[in-house]
Amino acid sequence: RLSLFAVILISGIIFVNKYTHSSSSIAPWNSYRSDTDFCEDKHYSERVLKEEYTASIGGLLKNVHHADVFEASGVVYDEIRDAYWVAFDSLFGIAKLPSDLSRNADNILVASDVNGVNDNVYDFESDFEGITRDADSDTFYLLTECGKFKDGDKKVYHPLIREAIYDEQWTYVENSLCAVDFEAPSDNKGFEGLNVIVIDGQKFFVGLCEGNHCESGKKGRDSGHGRVMLIEFTPEKLSGDDDKFQYLLDAGIDCIYRTID
Description:
Radius of gyration: 21 Å
Number of helices: 4
Shape: globular
Order of helices and strands: EEHEEHEEEEEEEEEEHEEHEE
């Protein structure tokens, strides 16, 4: 998980590189036998990342639309606007923070045109666990860990992806809300991250499963078996003839992203 705190430490970090130090008394980092050796080295402070400053999300934003919880869960850098976009598990609003991370009027909480900042027209909270951006189209994709649906008597869970465009003011416009065909094992073991990648000129999404083996329970705690899902970049439209996903259509979701084996 990218962050469990309402604190963001982005670009306020500087790296002090001492590996080219002329003194032979400073051993190269890969010569240490263990992490303990490295941490106890007297030159430790000269060869590690330095935190420049820390700021809370609430401290950076001047207008928070009465939001009082900022559970930051995803961040993406926007090179066009030289800003970071931050998604929250607790909000439908997303934060736009210029990269200098100073507290100023350019730091804003951008509301969804459908759900506002805190409101919700669907039967579930945002549960945003990721945000990514397609630089070519300046389109954002917001990941909801899991949406809960009912297929007859069976509960079914699917990660959800919102496609959104920023209106350059206070709102992002939701163009679509589509499910991913991956069926999560439970409502809290869906996707924990999303990214756009390009392979041989073709775009895909990569979704990070929360549980090991993409499972929950004991198998999901089997460390060392993390998984990502490769997902088609363009969703398919669902129709009334698709009985397999009728429960999605019944919930107002008419498109689906296909995973690739």
